[in-house]
Amino acid sequence: MANRVIDLPPMTPPMKRSVTIDGHRTSVSLEDAFWRGIADAAKARGVTRAQLIGQIDHARPPEVGLATALRLFVVAEMRRG
């Protein structure tokens, strides 16, 4: 198999941001592309980013971490779009 050049998107290390869910502050580390995806999805739904993160947090299974749930949500949104 020949080596092919792959065109990668801009990459950033995970960035930690604080969010408040049900009055409780927590920190989540995500790459910038996922933060942008969450922001876009929140805007499309007419809610704040924090509200959307709270909705995702409440809907996720307890064995799935919040950062994982957020990443999978963004991927699912991209597939729908």
From TrEMBL:
Record-linked Pfam families: RHH_4 (PF13467)
Residue span(s) of domain Ribbon-helix-helix: 15-77
InterPro entries listed in its UniProt record: RHH_dom, RHH_sf
Protein name: Ribbon-helix-helix domain-containing protein
Organism per entry: Paracoccus benzoatiresistens
Lineage: Bacteria, Pseudomonadati, Pseudomonadota, Alphaproteobacteria, Rhodobacterales
